[in-house]
Amino acid sequence: MVYCSSQLLSTSFPLLNPKTLKFDAKYSKNWLPLQSTEGLVKGLYQTRVLNLRAMQEDKASAVTSDGSELRVPHVLTVAGSDSGAGAGIQADLKTCAARGGVEVVPEDFVAEQLKSVLSDMRADVVKTGMLPSTGIVKILLHSLKEFPVRALVVDPVMVSTSGDVLAGPSILATFREELLPMADIVTPNLREASVLLGGVQLETVANMRSAAKSIHDMGPRNVLVKGGDLPASSDAVDIFFDGQDFYELRSSRVKTRNTHGTGCTLASCIAAELAKGHPMLSAVKVAKRYIETALDYSKDIVIGSGLQGPFDHLSKLKRNVHNAYVQRAFDSGDLFLYAVTDSGMNKKWGRSITDAVKAALEGGATIVQLREKDAETRDFLEAAKACLEICRSKGVPLLINDRVDVALACDADGVHVGQSDMPTNVVRSLLGPEKIIGVSCKTPQQAQQAWIDGADYIGSGGVYPTNTKANNRTIGIDGLKTVSLASKLPVVAIGGIGLSNAQSVMETGVPNLKGVAVVSALFDQECVLTETKKLHAVLMEAASRVK
Ligand SMILES: Cc1ncc(COP(=O)(O)OP(=O)(O)O)c(N)n1
Ligand SMILES: Cc1ncsc1CCOP(=O)(O)O
Ligand SMILES: [Mg+2]
């Protein structure tokens, strides 16, 4: 058992040549001063070249030009070292580098180092991996009581993905009685869940659900039972339980031997997302998608000759090395006033797409979709790039309707697809874990499938008859309710919605109905700005009544 003693907390993609990847003090010359221009600070935030000494001097934060403090998300992991660099601290480091996070604990002063790091650098999240003795667990718990953090992520590493037993039974009682009650999330694989529960057989998804419930009874706020080893399952199914609801998280099983370190990586990714301030369920979903994407990206690489090989944590960074934009996480509140453009309507009123989008944003649109059915691909792409710049300047997500190719080409925030468009799971695999994907659903079955396929929200309608989409079946308020109740995904209502009926839509009383998507009510109008402002006011009024 070794604790990594590197001085460097994290690294950045300019340094991430896999052949030369080292965590070495010599990289400190790459340190960019934290007290600098906002642009540089943002660049730093994105590239995360963090040097321990500088971090200590600057208290892990910087001041932007508007005087606000910029906190650097910080994950401290306390885990074992894997000399093969696929699991343990090495997997944690690479995951945090890929997802944006920081960490390391020196070797022989566990208690002192925990104290010095937690007291001085204000870690947001602590993630644990292999903890070899009750002594170390107790030191950790003592430090966390003295210096509380926002979240504790416990990967109860007792049995590796390869089946090796990594922590003896002596530690089990301490895990159950002391560590788990402190955890915000615990992420056992099937074997670990079984060990925690005294050796019960876990062979089905139903078994995993009851295991998640029983482990939750031991005290952690959330439990993720990972079903990667579930026999006879074509999907990789995990069960997330937050004490109230169960969520079945599915991803396609990537056929590869390179699964070494997936457990560490998943927990590290959850920690990194929590450190960035994302809610638990969204952190877990992003982490699962990140694993799926990274496994798929590196399924064919051959490293070593063992039964399992490591995968490539930094695949996404390598693909997007020139792309400095860091997309913020999707928030269901973004669906509140969803503006969907229509090239025909803009032409009719003699305005460009960009002017239409600018006006909608000024009027209070909270998300924009470019639905340009008649546009030539090249024109669509140019318009999308221009609109994306406008939307990003306002912090509003921009989605592309139907055209995954256009979304990829301009790096849009996401895509909306319908039942006859590209399948959602394929869109997810093309866009990666972070992009926003919306799916049109008219039935409960479609809504359930949307969740399974990795959608972020559902668009449901037409709630009322519409002239905008030909031959569109109207499902009414009752249809909207049925679809919404069939899913935990947030829902936006669409179809024939405008000033006269938006309030009744919002007052349907379904908790996951988060807003309305409108085309003609905004864009088949003389003044987009005025109409958007009016609709915004109606929605605000409806929201205040619902509260
Ligand atoms: C938010 C939102 N919901 C539903 C749709 C409709 O999508 P689809 O069924 O694919 O039909 P087209 O819009 O492509 O004609 C949507 N675009 N947006
Ligand atoms: C794209 C779409 N999908 C279902 S209804 C609809 C059209 C909505 O347009 P409008 O808001 O003008 O009724
Ligand atoms: Mg479509």
TrEMBL record:
CDD domains: HMPP_kinase, TMP_TenI. InterPro entries: Aldolase_TIM (IPR013785), HMP/HMP-P_kinase_dom (IPR004399), PM/HMP-P_kinase-1 (IPR013749), Ribokinase-like (IPR029056), ThiamineP_synth_sf (IPR036206), ThiamineP_synth_TenI (IPR022998), TMP_synthase (IPR034291). Its EC number is 2.5.1.3. One of its GO terms (molecular function) is metal ion binding. Coiled coil: none annotated. Residues 337-522 form the Thiamine phosphate synthase/TenI domain. It is an enzyme of class 2 (transferase). One of its GO terms (cellular component) is chloroplast. The lineage of its organism: Eukaryota, Viridiplantae, Streptophyta, Embryophyta, Tracheophyta. This is thiamine phosphate synthase. Pathway: Cofactor biosynthesis; thiamine diphosphate biosynthesis; thiamine phosphate from 4-amino-2-methyl-5-diphosphomethylpyrimidine and 4-methyl-5-(2-phosphoethyl)-thiazole: step 1/1. The keyword Glycosyltransferase does not apply. Keywords: ATP-binding, Kinase, Magnesium, Metal-binding, Multifunctional enzyme, Nucleotide-binding, Thiamine biosynthesis, Transferase. Residues 101-305 form the Pyridoxamine kinase/Phosphomethylpyrimidine kinase domain. It comes from Escallonia herrerae. HAMAP family: TMP_synthase. It catalyses: 2-(2-carboxy-4-methylthiazol-5-yl)ethyl phosphate + 4-amino-2-methyl-5-(diphosphooxymethyl)pyrimidine + 2 H(+) = thiamine phosphate + CO2 + diphosphate; 4-methyl-5-(2-phosphooxyethyl)-thiazole + 4-amino-2-methyl-5-(diphosphooxymethyl)pyrimidine + H(+) = thiamine phosphate + diphosphate; 2-[(2R,5Z)-2-carboxy-4-methylthiazol-5(2H)-ylidene]ethyl phosphate + 4-amino-2-methyl-5-(diphosphooxymethyl)pyrimidine + 2 H(+) = thiamine phosphate + CO2 + diphosphate.
